[in-house]
């Protein structure tokens, strides 16, 4: 990836066609060229203009002079005993002082492969049970950087035409390696709405990456004013990090609740475009010992969700160094799940994946920090002097 050459990845079709003007493609040919590029970038997965064999050589050279389609640097790849993979990617600074790093996680299962994608470097919110919440917000990711996580994962898994999957990799038994995207990595996606929207519309484009919107889920801690737009403008599936059933508890666990309390959040859910029994909202509920895991909590959860087409996803708490919570005992989780099940809700208990490589829910954190002002000034001064 390049700091100085503008990227083509992450541009809408219209923007891509407009960009062709900069390499002197005549107006009449711009849309055709944009379609060609789209195919190379998102169906074939090329990251080098020289591979675009149906584009004339001199135009390829010109594109390469002006634009970038390069991948980010992969700093680290860890593979769990259960096949879960975690990558650390590095992106250019783009004003954040130094290059930034984010984590992306791949979770293979029998019939699907789910990619957990980050939307921000760090998070402005401070949910008390979440590791990412302890990392200061550095910056939003661009639409290019959000898509780059998907493209890199597919590169590494050999998930493009003519590519080979690494020997011994654990992947779905048939079909594509990446079948689902969840915006559940680092950051609050609805605090980076425009970039997330752009990236997800490209990911679901039928002539490109072609992921069905039913297989893309965006998780939010509860940014109420953006919930309607998520359904209306992106049209993906919605997950809500609920985690508590009373405002006084949720105020502590998910502090954004002080701004938009449970009632407002659930009202926004009721109005989610396209909501039906076939298209339910997932409510995530992290199981914290003696905090939110009583039978009363379960009953209240059922009462609150009445009338909302919902699935409840119980997440065993994943500990991280310095965390102040413990995971509920297994019997407690099962009893909680029974109550919810008896009320007619599917409530799968999410199997923790990739704990050995620190890739499970809420364990992501990168070393990226925003430079302190003093260091930034020093760096700028050094840059000017050089
Ligand atoms: N910021 C968004 C997207 C992150 S999703 C959101 O909060 O929804 C990550 C999911 O994992 C969220 O439901 C989050 O609440 C949950 N989570 C965070 N820390 C966790 C932990 N330590 N153990 C289990 N789940 C956790
Ligand atoms: Fe941010 Fe989500 Fe973690 Fe809360 S749970 S701190 S919103 S990433």
TrEMBL record:
Keywords from the UniProt entry: 4Fe-4S, Cytoplasm, Disulfide bond, Iron, Iron-sulfur, Metal-binding, Methyltransferase, rRNA processing, S-adenosyl-L-methionine, Transferase, tRNA processing
Iron-sulfur listed as a keyword: yes
Residues annotated as the enzyme's active site: 103 (proton acceptor), 361 (s-methylcysteine intermediate)
Cited CDD domains: Radical_SAM
Binding site for S-adenosyl-L-methionine: 187-188, 219, 241-243, 318
InterPro entries: Aldolase_TIM, Methyltransferase_A, RlmN_N, RNA_MTrfase_RlmN, rRNA_lsu_MTrfase_RlmN/Cfr, rSAM, rSAM_sf
Designated name of the protein: Dual-specificity RNA methyltransferase RlmN
EC number: 2.1.1.192
Gene Ontology molecular function terms on file: methyltransferase activity
UniProt record similarity statement: Belongs to the radical SAM superfamily. RlmN family.
Intracellular or extracellular location(s): Cytoplasm
Record bears the keyword S-adenosyl-L-methionine: yes
PANTHER family registered for this protein in UniProt: 23S RRNA METHYLTRANSFERASE, RADICAL SAM CORE DOMAIN-CONTAINING PROTEIN
GO term, biological process aspect, one: methylation
Cofactor(s) in the UniProt record: [4Fe-4S] cluster
Record's function text: Specifically methylates position 2 of adenine 2503 in 23S rRNA and position 2 of adenine 37 in tRNAs. m2A2503 modification seems to play a crucial role in the proofreading step occurring at the peptidyl transferase center and thus would serve to optimize ribosomal fidelity.
Cofactor note: Binds 1 [4Fe-4S] cluster. The cluster is coordinated with 3 cysteines and an exchangeable S-adenosyl-L-methionine.
Catalytic activity: adenosine(37) in tRNA + 2 reduced [2Fe-2S]-[ferredoxin] + 2 S-adenosyl-L-methionine = 2-methyladenosine(37) in tRNA + 5'-deoxyadenosine + L-methionine + 2 oxidized [2Fe-2S]-[ferredoxin] + S-adenosyl-L-homocysteine; adenosine(2503) in 23S rRNA + 2 reduced [2Fe-2S]-[ferredoxin] + 2 S-adenosyl-L-methionine = 2-methyladenosine(2503) in 23S rRNA + 5'-deoxyadenosine + L-methionine + 2 oxidized [2Fe-2S]-[ferredoxin] + S-adenosyl-L-homocysteine
UniProt-annotated binding residues for [4Fe-4S] cluster: 123, 127, 130
Organism domain of life: Bacteria
Domain (Radical SAM core): residue spans on this chain: 109-356
């Amino acid at each position: 990836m390049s700091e100085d050459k503008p990227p083509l990845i992450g541009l809408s079709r219209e923007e891509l066609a407009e960009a062709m003007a900069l390499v002197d493609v005549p107006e009449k040919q711009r849309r055709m060229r944009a379609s060609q590029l789209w195919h190379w970038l998102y169906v074939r997965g090329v990251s080098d203009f020289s591979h675009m064999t149906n584009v004339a050589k001199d135009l390829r050279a010109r594109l390469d002079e002006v634009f970038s389609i390069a991948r980010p640097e992969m700093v680290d790849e860890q593979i769990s005993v259960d096949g879960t993979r975690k990558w650390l990617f590095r992106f250019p600074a783009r004003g954040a002082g130094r290059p930034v790093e984010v984590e992306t996680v791949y979770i293979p299962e029998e019939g699907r492969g789910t990619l957990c994608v980050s939307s921000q470097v760090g998070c402005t919110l401070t949910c008390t049970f979440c590791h990412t919440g302890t990392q200061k917000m550095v910056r939003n990711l661009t639409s290019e950087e959000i898509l780059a996580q998907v493209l890199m994962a597919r590169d590494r898994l050999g998930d493009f035409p003519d590519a080979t999957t690494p020997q011994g990799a654990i992947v779905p038994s048939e079909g594509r390696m990446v079948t689902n995207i969840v915006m559940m990595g680092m950051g609050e996606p609805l605090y980076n709405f425009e970039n997330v929207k752009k990236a997800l519309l490209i990911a679901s484009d039928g002539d490109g990456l072609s992921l069905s919107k039913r297989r893309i889920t965006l998780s939010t801690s509860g940014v109420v004013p953006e919930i309607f737009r998520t359904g209306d403008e992106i049209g993906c599936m919605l997950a809500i990090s609920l985690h508590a059933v009373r405002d006084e508890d949720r105020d502590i666990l998910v502090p954004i609740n002080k701004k938009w309390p449970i009632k407002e959040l659930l009202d926004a859910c009721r109005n989610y475009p396209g909501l039906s029994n076939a298209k339910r909202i997932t409510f995530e509920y992290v199981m914290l010992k003696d905090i939110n895991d009583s039978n009363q909590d379960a009953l209240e959860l059922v009462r609150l969700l009445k009338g909302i087409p919902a699935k409840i996803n119980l997440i065993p708490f994943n500990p991280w160094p310095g965390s102040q919570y413990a995971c509920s005992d297994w019997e407690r989780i099962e009893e909680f799940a029974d109550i919810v099940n008896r009320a007619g809700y599917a409530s799968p208990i999410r199997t923790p994946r990739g704990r050995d490589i620190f890739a499970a829910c809420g364990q992501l954190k990168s070393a990226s920090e925003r430079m302190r002002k003093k260091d930034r000034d020093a760096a700028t001064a050094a840059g000017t002097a050089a």
